[in-house]
Amino acid sequence: xxRFGFLIGAAMxxxxxxxxxxxxxxxxxxxxxxxxxxxxxxxxIEAAAKLLPDTPxxxxxxxxxxxxxxxxxxxxxxxxxxxxxxxxxPIVVWGNGGCAADGAGQRFHLLEIASHGYLVIANGGIKSGxxxxxxxxxxxxxxxxxxxxxxxxxxxSAGQLTQAIDWAIAENARPASPFYGKLDTARIAAxxxxxxxxxxxxVSTSDPRITTTVIHNSGLFSGGPRxxxxxxxxxxxxxxxxxxxxxxxxxxxxxxxxxxxDYARIGxxxxxxxNLDVGHGGSFFEPNGGKAAQVAVAWLNWRLKGDxxxxxxxxxxxxxxxxxxxxKYEHKGF
Length: 334
Known about the structure:
Distance between the termini: 38 Å
CATH architecture: 3-Layer(aba) Sandwich
Structural class: alpha/beta
CATH superfamily: Alpha/Beta hydrolase fold, catalytic domain
Largest sheet: 9 strands, mixed
Low-confidence stretches: 1-33
Number of helices: 8
Mean pLDDT: 86
CATH topology: Rossmann fold
Helix content: 25-40%
Strand order of the largest sheet: 1-2-4-3-5-6-7-8-9
Radius of gyration: 18 Å
Strand content: 15-25%
Order of helices and strands: HHEEEHEHEHEEHEHHE
């Protein structure tokens, strides 16, 4: 754990911090607002995190990750000892930041969720972390005529989240599967970070099997330029049919404007918004996913397991987030 803190701290110091990348005013709604400098800063922290061992999570069931040949281009997170899990595992499907194809890119966050009794499936195979070959240094991010980051085409799709759901349901029904009869196929969450958050919204606005959604540092553009993989229109938010939470990084988060605008527009389902002033990188590269993972787990425990302790984070005048000095929290429709 000391090595974890040293490496991440060194990257943070070298980069100043992700949050400081947003020292400029927040970009207007609809503008990508991603600078090459921000990409480099997040990349430095992510590169440091890739050197670290997996963390098993803080839940009751130490978690592991693996690939499965029957579900190509995905990474599966689950409790290591399935036989010791009490009750069935709800299902969480995950879209990576940047719509990247590395299913281990946010592994600390996803292992944390799985350790609390969930099957988590991320887009992309295991391409970083223990046992993988070091990746070559990424090329310098391309820039457009206005100096803004030019995003490459996405390497994953929202359709892969649907594939993950279909696979999990089939595995639950297959007698030879390690997940046979162990999954709660009526409790399914879609989640993701940044571009992956838009993938989660895409599935949540079209697939009635989704029973809750957790969006990290993301939101839909209201006009102007679109980034590849993030073309979903604001009008689609009216199709949401299940409770949703936005977990954002405060005003320095490049997704803050779009995410808070989504929150203002959504009124047909219970919705919450929690802001931690850390910028667009959230807390994904902190041990066990940091504070954002704690909020995500509490929400999932409430919405997918009916857990009263999870609900206490969000509901009531004395809720955990209501009293937190770190989080700015609001909700409606509860």
